[in-house]
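Why should sequence recovery work at all? Because a backbone constrains its sequence more than one might expect. Tight turns favour small or flexible residues, buried strands favour hydrophobic ones, and helices have their own preferences. The token representation captures these environments compactly. In the example below, the structure is given first.
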């Protein structure tokens, strides 16, 4: 729920560059409220509605909810990489079938089909993103017969900021489609992607108090990234798993720092792991230095802290975050806010750039050592009302049953 709140609050203002974010904060502005998605505000590319209500979450939450459902559906045994890929494809083809049925009713003039069609479309959209990436593991026969299909087009459906329809694609196009998958070209020139960090956090539920097992499980299951990018979600999941075992944030992060990440997760050291270790240490130092000079943290002091994070991790002026930034910044936010969930969320939202992702990850980490009672009840109500297609509370409770 904390991640969904962070995502929904940040969504309408996602993508502000470092420069724009700093100008906004220097003018004394601070975001601690939800905004609607309107043509005059911002069309989030993964909301697809011209007038989505305040509190509507984005693709980040939808992907995590899908992963949570996969875990619940396979509660008797942990998912393997192949099983997860197959589940993703099964979900995609099921979503495709349901969308076609409701789309046919809508085209036949059914007024009641419109709202259902929008939700079915959105679900299909995110199943599509997952399925494209899962082709790294398995390409099922259905991709060849009937023809593989993608969602594409910006002309026919005026109810979405980007309009889409289903278009057949020849089998030989599969490789091209994989390379156009989720942020493939925008993060570190295709070498690393953050999808694992967005989607895999719920898997920490398997390993309360067992960060080593969590780390190695993510290494086995993560087909979203290439090269060393699996390390970022693996470390994040390890930290969350440790917190779910009953430790507080200071105990968990101090253990990771004192032992070193290689010993904390019991794996051989590597240049990439050492780089992550240095990044986390740097994030902690920045947060502790800023906390040292303030008692009750004012927004002016919080703004100064955010500027320091920009300087350390978001040096370019684009709105995109690197995978490293998406791990180091949330760690710094949790350290600075002393796991105050509401404040962690606000800090992440006001960070700018890919703030819905950064804030969601920070909220997941802080939320792992806090009860739901620590969350702003008004925020919970806004997000629940704006996303009635899913009962997040019920899903979370099922996720934690018979752990």
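From this structural description, the recovered sequence reads:
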């Amino acid at each position: 729920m904390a991640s969904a709140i962070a995502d929904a609050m940040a969504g309408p203002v996602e993508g502000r560059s470092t420069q724009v974010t700093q100008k906004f904060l220097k003018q004394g502005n601070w975001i601690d409220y939800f905004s609607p998605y309107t043509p005059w505000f911002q069309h989030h590319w993964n909301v697809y509605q011209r007038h989505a209500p305040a509190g509507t979450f984005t693709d980040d939450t939808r992907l995590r909810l899908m992963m949570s459902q996969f875990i619940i559906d396979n509660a008797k045994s942990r998912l393997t990489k192949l099983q997860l890929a197959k589940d993703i494809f099964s979900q995609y083809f099921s979503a495709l079938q349901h969308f076609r049925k409701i789309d046919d009713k809508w085209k036949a003039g059914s007024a009641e089909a419109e709202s259902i069609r929008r939700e079915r479309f959105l679900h299909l959209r995110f199943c599509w993103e997952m399925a494209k990436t899962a082709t790294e593991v398995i390409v099922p026969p259905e991709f060849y017969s009937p023809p593989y299909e993608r969602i594409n087009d910006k002309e026919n459906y005026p109810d979405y900021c980007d309009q889409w329809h289903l278009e057949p694609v020849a089998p030989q196009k599969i490789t091209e489609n994989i390379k156009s998958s989720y942020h493939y070209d925008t993060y570190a020139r295709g070498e690393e992607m953050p999808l694992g960090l967005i989607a895999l956090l719920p898997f920490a539920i398997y390993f309360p108090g067992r960060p080593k097992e969590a780390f190695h499980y993510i290494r086995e299951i993560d087909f979203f990234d290439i090269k060393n990018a699996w390390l970022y979600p693996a470390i994040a999941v390890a930290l969350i798993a440790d917190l779910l075992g009953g430790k507080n944030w200071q105990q968990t992060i101090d253990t990771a720092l004192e032992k070193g990440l290689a010993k904390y997760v019991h794996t051989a050291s590597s240049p990439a792991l050492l780089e992550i270790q240095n990044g986390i240490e740097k994030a902690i130092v920045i947060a502790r230095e800023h906390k040292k000079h303030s008692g009750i943290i004012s927004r002016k002091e919080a703004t100064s802290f955010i500027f320091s994070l920009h300087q350390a991790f978001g040096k370019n002026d684009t709105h995109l975050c690197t995978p490293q930034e998406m791990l180091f910044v949330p760690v710094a936010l949790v350290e600075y806010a002393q796991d105050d969930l509401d404040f962690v969320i606000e800090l992440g939202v006001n960070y700018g750039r890919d703030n819905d992702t950064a804030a969601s990850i920070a909220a997941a980490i802080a939320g792992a050592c806090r009860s739901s009672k620590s969350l702003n009840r008004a925020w919970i109500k806004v997000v629940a009302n704006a996303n009635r297609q899913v009962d997040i509370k019920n899903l979370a409770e099922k996720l934690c049953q018979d752990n």
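A few observations help interpret the result. The beta strands are 149-152, 165-168.
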